[in-house]
Amino acid sequence: MIFNSIHFLEFILIFIPLYYFFKGKLRLWFTLGASYFFYGYWDYRFLALVLASTIFEYNLALYLEKTEDEKKRKRLLITSIVFNLITLGFFKYFNFFIESTNGILGLFGTGTIHNTLHIILPIGISFYTFQAISYTTDIYKRKIKAETDFAAFSVYSIFFAKLTAGPILRAHDFLPQLKTDQKFTWDNFETGLARVLLGFAKKIIIADSLGSFVGTAFAFPEKYSSLYLIIGIIFYSFQIYCDFSGYSDIAIGLARILGYRFPQNFNFPYLAKNFSEFWSRWHMSLSSWLREYLYIPLGGNRNGKFNAYRNLMITMLLGGLWHGANWTFVVWGGLNGIYLVAQRLILPTTDRIAKLVPKQLFVPTAMIIVFLLTCFSRIFFRSNNFEGAFEMIKGIFSFNDMSFSHLPNMFVIIKNIGLISILMVLEYVHQSNDFEELVLKSPTFKIIAFSVILWMIALFGTFSDSQFIYIQF
Amino acid sequence: MKESVIENTIEIKAPSIEVEIKSEVAKKEKNRLWLYLVLIPLIFLGDRGIGAFLEYLTMTSNLRYSKLYNGKGEADIVILGNSRGNGYYEPEIRKITGMTTLNLSYNALPGEIGQALIEDYFERYKAKLVIVDVSLVMKTEDQVITSFRPYMSKSEKISALIQDVSPATARGCKISRLYQYNSELFHRALYYLGKQEGDWILNKQIKEELLTHDNLADSLDVVIKQGGLDNLKAIAEVAKKHNTKVEFVIAPYHSIWLNKIHNIKDFLAAIKNNTGVEVRDYCRFTNDKTCYSDYLHLNKKGSLLYMKKLQDDGVFALK
Predict the structure, then answer these.
(1) Is A118 a catalytic residue?
(2) ipTM reported for the complex, 2 dp
């Protein structure tokens, strides 16, 4: 079941009143049942896996908390991490491992491994396992107490609003909220609904409209001019932003309707002036997870510059691999690692330039450079293989036919540029005026916002039931 | 003594704060009720109001379909085709024949819509000649049929076709008037507000890489469908009924594409058998790469040569 489907609309319209009808434990069990239904609707065969994993993590965490012996505690933590990584590795990376091994064996002219297992990727597994790892790690570090209420722990693990594509929740943020009976308030309902509508608008109006253009550019780069391909990769950056931040908005909004507060996942990333800032604004729940549970344990900025750069590269390469079982994702992560390292290396120079050049010139230039380099790295993120990615790069850098008048699908391009411009203006305004605050404070704004979003969806929406991009990760 | 005074004060004040909070909550709820009483009709009325304005814009546009339905579409020659039909270059036809032209071609235009457009044309106007590029019946895309929804309220035939291929779209248009204008055709109509159209031809030349190696499938054979043949037959019949000459033609393909359509002759023969109209075959008219923008479409240079050929062969002649 995906958010932008009629089935989900039916599901949520039944769920919300019943959720508020039940109280206390009963509400938790009801939410858990609904979350299992939501997951099982996609593929019921994985429900057993989710249940087994939840039971295992729940008991291991309780045992970990009781144990005083540090060595034993460490062993328990490692067991949890290994269990989660094996689960993730098997379902997400098994086919990739076999294909990569066959590629290496092929180089030596030896036989290949025959893959008889056709493994399906359980939806949301990457988000689920990262959340589980952070939970046991926090208990190991005695930052939080192990949850004793099985229903609360299970809802924390598999709550449908964030199950398929995050945000990755931290136990200390979400579990206390589950332990209090959230009361229905109109303020929560309205701000939540406004956020949900905003998310749908981003997805249906912009992301899906850009998607069909991007799809043709990446499918047949040899057919199109360099200018068309450049527009294609820029559009892709906006497509993925609107798709994923739209999903996050819907998840955050749904949680708010139910009385919960989810953390923000995006903070206007394309207004970032450097790559560190970009990563603190893009997919924030993953970035902070990687920093806290990978980069810092690797040594972080400690132990000298070289080690810091190495740690950055490892974090970004693994972050890339987390997205998908394909070497193209690793290259994407690697490129972003290089950007971060290069930024640190040239920091004294950029600081000097910033002092010499007026701020009004330096800031937009920096934003554009960060944006364009991000677009370039995404060629590897979007392409199915290296052949396609290099075909795209070759097409762009041949600078063949840069004439606007020769562009096909001109109407689609103009429409999408118009929609992106509206988005950017709204993002800019939104930076200084919180959308939810405005919805709460000003009835006029509320009326205008609800009406305009609904009209825009009717006039510009693409109603194709297309999947959210991050669901595949 | 002091303590009891304080206690008394608290006792007196507490209920009044509670009452104040309660009345504030009640006021807020009342305001909220008013808000929804305003919001729901506003959304509905706004949809209708803005929709009416968009209809006005659509119908005042110079886009070919707006002209067809706003009373300004009458022409001597009516042309129909898919994107290849845009190669029948209107300014050149006007120049060599001295006759006015209305080109109703559109990207991936399906035969069903083509038939509806021609029937709607003859319900409103007269013409001397109808030229149909028969490649329009090679492919049908439901999505293209639904993209004609800005003209639903002007054509019962288009409305029925949309209802037939996508009841959800038809329902959506009833619920929201704005959704009716959620179509590329509406964007084109906006573009041609106060601007003349008729020049939808590409100026570029086919990419060299496409000529040296193609990624095409081995076979691009036409799936000959009875529905498409019926559409052509209906078009020929309605034109003849209005004493209008009908020419069925097929525009040039680059040989790389054409060589993969193994049944093109069967396709043209099937049209002749079903409609009684011979198709003038220009598939192999030229293979000069400077005449093509891709395998399927002539560029401006190719189109000018092709129009001259049609003139020389008497396609534009009225007798």
Answers:
(1) no
(2) 0.80
